[in-house]
User: Fold these one by one.
Assistant:
Number 1:
Amino acid sequence: AAGVIQSPRHLIKEKRETATLKCYPISRHDTVYWYQQGPGQDPQFLISFYEKMQSDKGSIPDRFSAQQFSDYHSELNMSSLELGDSALYFCASSDTGGFWYNEQFFGPGTRLTVL
Amino acid sequence: KQEVTQIPAALSVPEGENLVLNCSFTDSAIYNLQWFRQDPGKGLTSLLLIQSSQREQTSGRLNASLDKSSGRSTLYIAASQPGDSATYLCAARGGATNKLIFGTGTLLAVQP
């Protein structure tokens, strides 16, 4: 079965530009999570969606927004990019069904470089 | 607030050795704990998931244990190989939220 798909895999942007990262969860998974991993750091939770509704929110800047669509894919929109936004962005999905103990499966990540 | 720490931060062992990686968490009210492997600049590969009701999980040469009362988990790697060289991350899934809180990671180098 196909895993979590993220696109693009690499993205280079200039400061103050916008970027959109996409995540396609595993088939029938209803929950999507976004994490940010800065250079040399551990992944930090940004935001999650369950059945197209925001289910939890972490340290996501106000410049970022995200949503989950009817086909369960999710997009992370990032505006007014800053140098500090350069990081590896992971998407994960799980078949939650309202039970939060189910495993999260991670995508390969999108490496965003802001110049 | 859940905090997850890993000791040691880095570890170098000769090939063939058995080793233990440690993970500590401050809030014992977790749903589960996952161990991941991450190669440099790459994604996260899930190794083992231990539910809060379980004591341990095994997969091949890997064995992970969980002691909720003491806030600890260990990842045991038997007969280490150079291909095991990577950063190992543990992540706790808390009771009040469904997000994963990651530890600081252990950088493992297995010398041939």
Number 2:
Amino acid sequence: AQTVTQSQPEMSVQEAETVTLSCTYDTSENNYYLFWYKQPPSRQMILVIRQEAYKQQNATENRFSVNFQKAAKSFSLKISDSQLGDTAMYFCASHHQGGKLIFGQGTELSVKP
Amino acid sequence: GAVVSQHPSWVICKSGTSVKIECRSLDFQATTMFWYRQFPKQSLMLMATSNEGSKATYEQGVEKDKFLINHASLTLSTLTVTSAHPEDSSFYICSAREVTSGANVLTFGAGSRLTVL
């Protein structure tokens, strides 16, 4: 079975500092995608960053970057220069054949002024 | 970019009645849509995969006779919660993948909050 695990239910960070959210996954597929989604209080799911498993280079989107360790099945998200608007639930997800996403439990991130 | 509209955003119904939630892809065609359920402070749990022109594929433990899914066109999927009970109260989210998209990126609707009294 495909699983995604986020072991940090809650995290907090001071504004302008850096925080890393952890995620591990398990899959039997060779070609897959990994995602981080943000869910602010509005509940709208917003794509933060995407990683293709066959690419060794870690994905980066402005202040957001990932540390993808394929052998360890680890996919952490680093947020640099944290902003108050980054406060949200963050979900790690893996994409599988057929298109469905499997989500981790989520990490509630609070950015403090 | 791709937009998915979900309606209604909030609905209250009496126990025993049925409620329909619509999911529309506004500017793209989607052969496949997905329905998720989210309880407060919890993750999104996949309920079913909605396939245009064919029967939906339900995840293990999801009652297909209770959660009816219809995907009649390339831009519309509906979820009907039949004979709703208070335990069905939840946040329901749909997502869709553009037919021509090779990026495997899903676009999510804003969700529908169902409260069953």
